[in-house]
Amino acid sequence: MLPNLRQTYFVIFAGCTSLILIALYMQHQMGLHPCPLCVTQRVFVIAVGLIALVAALHNSKGFSNTIYSGLAVVAGIIGAGVSARHVWIQNLPEDQVPACGPGLEYMFETFPLFDALALLFQGDGNCADVVWSFLGLSIPAWTFVAFVGLIVLCTWQGMRRA
pLDDT tens digits, residue range 89-130? Predict the structure, then answer.
């Protein structure tokens, strides 16, 4: 028997929470400092998780389920796009890697919002470093895989009926 909509949204929320906890473990225990694109991917994982949590708490059905799942899919697609860009930067030849830019905090304090966001999505030289991998895939590649899974699951949620 399939889990109901509410249970599946809680599973999505738990998955997103696990991804963030893994990221925090890698940052604070393993000493892997996130680049701007890593931070952006975290924001979209959190967004999908929060949308799923609200949908579960609301016990969405019918049209509201379609809205929640649609919002989660959109956040997942944007996150997957950021992850794909990050993987692309990691696979550029060394002479084509973007120069290292200012830190994330400096960008948002100094530049107008849209200029800071444009710089953020460009990535920089720090984003090209592969500091950890598992089964031949880097952290952004695994994050891309996770986003694809979240997109599939949220799409399925949107097509289900209570």
Answer: 877 767 665 555 556 566 667 767 666 666 665 555 466 566
Determine if the pTM surpasses 0.70: yes
133 strand-pairing partners: 138
5-92+101-159: CATH topology is Bromodomain-like (1.20.1550)
Residue 147: φ, ψ to 5°: -65, -40
Distance CA 128, CA 121 (A): 13
- Bigger pLDDT: 71 vs 133: 71
39 token code pair: 């931070």
Residues in CB range of 131: below 8 A, 6 or more apart: 32, 139
- How many CB atoms are closer than 10 A to CB 21? 10
* DSSP assigned state of 157: H
Q: What are the boundaries of each domain within the chain? A: 5-92+101-159
- Secondary structure (3-state) at 119: helix
